[in-house]
């Protein structure tokens, strides 16, 4: 979790174009993880109510499809390993 010390990304633009890849990044939220962990471990936030589906590892592709298409009112999917 987090950003590595060597905060650089090297890539070949031709490969990205040829494969039609999409790159997505997210904004880093400083000091968010410690607060989230405290909330979760304190019991102040009911994380179990956020889990709408559980699937075995063999059904991971189905889980991604469900999540992408918001199938069956999906909120969070747990993949059991």
H/E series, N to C? HHEHE
The gross shape turns out to be flat
Write out the strand line-up for the largest beta sheet, numbering strands in chain order: 1-2
- Quickly count the domains: 1
Low-confidence stretches: none
| Arithmetic mean pLDDT | 88
The end-to-end span amounts to: 20 Å
Beta content: 5-15%
Helix content: 25-40%
For the sheet with most strands, the description reads: 2 strands, parallel
**Structural category:** alpha+beta
Which keywords apply here?
single chain, alpha+beta, 81 residues, two-stranded parallel ribbon, 14% strand
List the helices and strands and how they pair.
Blueprint (H helix, E strand, L loop, with lengths): L12 H7 L12 H11 L8 E6 L3 H10 L6 E5 L1
Parallel strand pairs: 1-2
Written description of the protein model:
The chain is an alpha+beta fold and 81 residues long. The protein has one domain. Helices cover 35% and strands 14% of the residues. It contains 3 helices and 2 strands. It has helices at 13-19, 32-42, 60-69; strands spanning 51-56, 76-80. Strands 1-2 form a two-stranded parallel sheet. β1 (51-56), α3 and β2 (76-80) form a beta-alpha-beta unit. The longest helix has 11 residues, at 32-42. The two termini are 20 Å apart. The relative contact order is 0.13. The model has no long low-confidence stretch (mean pLDDT 88).
